[in-house]
């Protein structure tokens, strides 16, 4: 009975803190959340929402403009653009999400170990991260995909590799800030292992900053995947991807500009929504950043 009261109090405090956090989210953040949620739902229910098979060709409808039968028109093979956009959302969201999850896990572990250990380990790990940061993310991703091959797994690995240093840096900075706090010293006094102190006590304190970085870098991952597809290093045709659709549309940009326009708008909406979410989460976690700007 005595243990139930503190547990209930902790649960109520956590709930109040979560409600306060939601209250600090501005309108643009909620707008971004709604947009991303809508795109996710479109990707999940693409088979139900699509009006045609995304890979079905009909040469009689070659480069047709938007019409009642084909809402957004057709491409140079007579394929329905609307249906291909819906199925393309699956690949853009999947690649962006998986790449950032991989980068978050690996980069956060590297940064936390470097920040907590300090000394020579910190110097070696962060110098490796600096070497990776020396290459532009698109160029590095392009080189990795060209070496490994343009498969879904390899594209995820390539994009994740370019994002690892960003998560390592933010995790390291957070650990350095937290490692001299009283609760960390209490963990040492109680004989907790370094791994328990690091991952069970310090990690929750720095996780919000890592999640903000994840939302911002997912937008970068989406742009990188679209760029790779645009230059021919995306998933192989006829797989519908937004970047690949933009590249295919450029072959007929003067006569049928809608081929490149609609996938470009889809990429713009997704990247804008993710940036709105990232900026809003950053301001909600630390309102002083908003006041300083």
TrEMBL record:
Q: Which Pfam families match?
A: BPD_transp_1, OppC_N
Biological-process GO terms, alphabetical: peptide transport; protein transport; transmembrane transport
InterPro entries cross-referenced by the UniProt entry: BP-dependent_transpt_permease, MetI-like, MetI-like_sf, OppC_N
List keywords of the entry alphabetically.
Cell membrane, Membrane, Peptide transport, Protein transport, Transmembrane, Transmembrane helix, Transport
User: How would you describe this protein's topology in the membrane?
Assistant: Multi-pass membrane protein
Q: Which Gene3D superfamilies match?
A: MetI-like
Q: Show the stretches that span the lipid bilayer.
A: 29-50, 91-116, 128-149, 155-171, 256-278
| One cellular component term from this protein's GO annotations in UniProt | plasma membrane
Its chief place of residence is membrane
- Name all ABC transmembrane type-1 domain ranges: 89-278
Compartments it resides in: Cell membrane
Domain of life of the native organism? Bacteria
Q: Which family is annotated?
A: Belongs to the binding-protein-dependent transport system permease family.
Tell me, in a sentence or two, what this protein's role is: Probably part of an ABC transporter complex that could be involved in peptide import. Probably responsible for the translocation of the substrate across the membrane.
Identification of the protein by name: ABC transporter permease
Please name the source species: Falsochrobactrum shanghaiense
Query: Upper taxonomic classification of the species?
Result: Bacteria, Pseudomonadati, Pseudomonadota, Alphaproteobacteria, Hyphomicrobiales
């Amino acid at each position: 009975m005595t243990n139930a009261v503190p547990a209930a109090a902790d649960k109520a405090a956590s709930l109040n803190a979560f409600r306060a956090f939601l209250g600090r989210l501005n309108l643009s953040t909620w707008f971004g959340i709604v947009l991303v949620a809508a795109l996710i739902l479109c990707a999940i229910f693409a088979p139900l929402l699509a009006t045609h098979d995304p890979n079905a060709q009909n040469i009689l409808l070659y480069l047709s403009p938007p019409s009642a039968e084909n809402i957004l028109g057709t491409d140079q093979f007579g394929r329905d653009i609307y249906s291909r956009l819906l199925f393309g959302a699956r690949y853009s969201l999947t690649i962006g999400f998986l790449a950032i999850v991989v980068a978050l896990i690996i980069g956060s572990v590297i940064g936390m170990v470097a920040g907590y250990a300090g000394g020579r380990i910190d110097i070696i790990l962060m110098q490796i991260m600096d070497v990776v940061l020396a290459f532009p993310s698109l160029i590095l991703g392009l080189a990795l995909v060209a070496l490994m091959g343009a498969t879904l797994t390899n594209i995820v690995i390539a994009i994740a590799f370019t994002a690892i240093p960003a998560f390592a840096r933010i995790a390291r900075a957070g650990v350095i800030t937290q490692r001299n706090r009283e609760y960390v010293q209490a963990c040492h006094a109680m004989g907790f292992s370094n791994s328990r102190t690091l991952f069970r006590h310090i990690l929750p304190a720095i996780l919000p900053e890592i999640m903000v970085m994840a939302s911002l870098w997912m937008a970068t991952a989406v742009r990188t995947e679209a760029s790779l597809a645009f230059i021919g290093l995306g998933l192989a045709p006829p797989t519908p991807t937004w970047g690949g659709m933009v590249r295919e549309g450029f072959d007929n940009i003067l006569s049928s500009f809608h081929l490149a326009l609609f996938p470009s708008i889809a990429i713009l909406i997704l990247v804008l929504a993710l940036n709105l979410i990232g900026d809003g989460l950053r301001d909600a976690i630390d309102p002083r950043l908003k006041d300083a700007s």
